[in-house]
Specification:
The complex is a heterotetramer, with 2 copies of chain A and 2 copies of chain B.
Chain A: H1 6-11, E1 13-19, E2 22-27, H2 42-63, E3 69-79, E4 88-97, E5 101-109, E6 118-127
Chain B: H1 6-9, H2 13-20, H3 24-29, E1 32-36, E2 40-45, E3 52-54, E4 57-60, H4 62-81, E5 87-96, E6 106-115, E7 119-127, E8 136-144
Antiparallel strand pairs in B: 1-2, 2-6, 3-4, 5-8, 6-7, 7-8
The chains are: A alpha+beta, B alpha+beta.
Chain lengths: 130, 155, 130, 155
């Protein structure tokens, strides 16, 4: 699997495991991802969600033999519960992978995968080389 | 002792922003206060090599832009409210219209356009010099926190 | 189950079935829901998605004994595939039902529930009487 | 025969909107053209008793507001492009800031702020008389359709 972006590395995101085809990303709590005291910052959660989305999509494009670049279109994040000072995980699902765009659904959780603390919907432009 | 003047207690983003952006995630990103109006605040996120989204291009990743718009939104809400009170992000949408210029600072300008009893609505742009030619456009909703902040989202 | 809104009735939305706790809504194709010739209008799909969301949330509030009013906060709709001139169905899922807000995820499909033509994320204010 | 002047072929929302809103879903809703600029179009959706969202309040449901903003967005995109070409809605977000006034028309004003080779970005407001005091705020992305429109979303 390709390495993460400089931003993901700097934030402290690591690849925890591969769950089927989808990599599970991990972000440990630290001062650099803290918002209100003792609470995970919503921006750091968003960064984790996006990183999980791009990692899955990159892998799927490789699997299809497509040397396509990914360009973000948009991201809509739902904040469902406070992030505690615990490790946080995220996993994406490809809803649609078309010729020009991909649509992904991503969830982030802490102790229980069935109780997400945040979710995201992402649209990504998939640009084939000319 | 007389009660303090309203001017002393009203939320002032010029004084509050450096404090709120000095530490933790916002401090790590390196956000700076730029300017504000009655219902908007603009912050700056200087370019930094470890915040880029791709190895081969000197362009900020999209994650930091979400953090920037989130903080600018909070400041815009407090500025319009005239007071600092706990709020939590309910949801946030960011459209990425184009890549920022290489090694450019990204500026996040958020406007609070509506406050109800329990919610605050924001919109805004991220730009690299000209707000009329944005690199991203944001819309979001925040909730005021009244009791038991531990169970509420955001940060 | 409570009756639908005047708008849902006028658009032609009906309750197809109850799948577990979640009602399945149905919208038959007609000229009044048509966009481009032969294609279901995205606005009509959005109306179907919202109607499915409110119907499920109303039922859940009743079940919890809450006489709360529902006020829309927002709706984000993903259009995943063209809607053909076929019947369209929609079903919602409650992601979070809190004291003041609810978060719902809704999908619409035509022939195959596993291949949605559109999805929506909704936030709803839940206002208890004073 | 000489080729037509650009002025004759350029997209004109004043002439196109009545045609595009006369039939099918938009026609059923009863949308009307109001005004436009170089990159924006405003439509009107008159109040009607069978479009309300609650039995006991004479306020338009939120579904028709999505349809209104979708059509206004399409017209704004074609107006900015200067030509009519097939487009499809990729995604649309609407924040509902307040209820419209009882029995009021709702006006949908959409602006196309960016067009790339394959995407068009829009934002807008729905209001009941004053665009500065919106009842809803919208942000969305449309895709241009090049081949095989049958497999693409929207409508």
């Amino acid at each position: 699997m390709a390495r993460l972006t400089p931003y993901a590395d700097a934030l402290g995101i690591t690849v925890e495991a591969a769950d089927g085809d989808a990599p599970v990303m991990r972000l440990d709590f630290s001062d650099g991802v803290q918002g209100r005291p003792g609470v995970l910052h919503g921006g750091a959660i968003s960064g984790l969600l996006e990183t999980a989305g791009y990692a899955l999509l990159r892998g799927a494009l490789v699997q299809e033999g497509r040397a396509a670049a990914m360009k973000p279109i948009n991201l809509t994040v739902q904040f469902l519960a406070s992030g505690k000072p615990h490790p946080t995980f995220a996993k994406a699902r490809i809803v649609k992978l078309g010729r020009r765009t991909a649509n992904l659904s991503v969830e982030a959780w802490q102790d229980d995968p069935s109780r997400p603390i945040a979710s995201a919907v992402m649209n990504v432009m998939v640009v084939e080389p000319e | 002792m007389p009660p303090p003047e309203p001017a002393d207690t009203a939320f002032d983003p010029v004084r509050a922003a450096p404090f709120l952006t000095a530490r933790s995630h916002n401090g790590w990103l390196g956000m700076l206060y730029r300017e504000h109006g009655a219902d908007w605040v603009e912050l700056e996120l200087p370019w930094r090599s470890d915040l880029v989204g791709e190895d081969d291009r000197a362009v900020l990743a999209s994650g930091p832009i979400v953090s920037l718009m989130d903080m600018a939104s909070g400041l815009a809400i407090w500025t319009r409210m005239g007071s600092f009170q706990p709020i939590a992000t309910l949801d946030l949408r960011v459209d990425y219209t184009r890549a920022a210029a290489p090694r450019a600072s990204v500026f996040g300008r958020a406007t609070c356009y509506r406050i109800t009893r329990s919610a605050a609505f924001v919109h805004g742009v991220a730009h690299d010099g000209d707000p009329a030619d944005p690199v991203a456009r944001m819309q979001g909703v925040f909730m005021t926190i009244k009791v038991n902040p531990g169970i509420l989202p955001g940060g």
